[in-house]
């Protein structure tokens, strides 16, 4: 009986992979929904695995968090931003290269069959792999925005702060603050010079009362990532609304599908659209049609080989 079961399991396994190969061969509009599992081979830990970020934070216990997930909670971030900034360099995408999974997503795009990659990752490795049709559902480090003047800057602008574990400040606000400080200084000196030369209206000179505002001018320039407790950008709903009528295959890679609303993509597309789940560990709360359980890089490389598709080489010249 056990030999028969093993044989059946093997048959199922072969059929399952073969079904996935056939679906990919016929697909024209693939949505790839990806998570942290496609970046672990690049050296970026995922979140919920036994060796993931949350387990590490729990074990280290050095960030004074009620629970590890609070590292990405907007309330904690607002109250004590120094906690996140003392940690952010560990996940900052400055020194990682795309995995075979990232390159596989790009190969779908190069073949003209990628409708969109909805990624939950903030490491921007999809863009590094040259993927154009990617939506970073949870934002990313690629830009940062000032809390006070809303100026948006490239992520590189705040990289020195992140790498030196400091709170990034807004350059625009800093410049405005320096100009204001100089102007107030000038007004003070003019006042001293003008003393006794006739009455000066109080309002023109009385700038001491608002000097306290200056300290708020050193506003924080925050990476444009989505924290727990924040809404996703409306682009997520808008694009999913458009894509749901076009998609003909959903491929889910490297995610535990634990975080809404991205995990709900599976229920937002028509049931007629087949779903392939590629992950190191199975999921029980959803039932994708085909589950390929194992290392994602190995599985997508195997699928590409079966399809006769070449992955862009690691050093491929990315889209200009
Ligand atoms: N191959 C295949 N799967 C892998 C690999 C790998 N090499 N490495 C890890 N995985 C799987 C893990 O087994 C796990 O099921 O990837 C999944 C990653 O799940 P999570 O750690 O929960 O990460 P993710 O699903 O992306 O989390 C979603 O939660 O914390 C928030 O905002 C954060 O975007 C993140 C969101």
Automatic annotation (TrEMBL):
For Zn(2+), which residues are the binding ones?
146, 149, 170, 173
Q: Which GO terms describe its cellular component?
A: mitochondrion; nucleus
Q: Where is the Deacetylase sirtuin-type domain?
A: 10-310
Annotated active site residues, numbered on this chain, are: 138 (proton acceptor)
| Location of the protein in the cell | Mitochondrion
Mitochondrion found in the keyword field: yes
- Region (Disordered) residue spans: 186-215
> Could you tell me one molecular function GO term of this UniProt entry?
metal ion binding
Instruction: Give the domain of life.
Output: Eukaryota
Main location, first listed in the record: mitochondrion
Where is composition skewed (Basic residues) in this entry? 190-200
Give the required cofactors.
Zn(2+)
Query: What are the record keywords, sorted?
Result: Metal-binding, Mitochondrion, NAD, Transferase, Transit peptide, Zinc
Say which family it is in.
Answer: Belongs to the sirtuin family. Class I subfamily.
Full protein name: DHS-like NAD/FAD-binding domain-containing protein
Mapped onto the parent protein, the portion here is 79 to 398 of 434
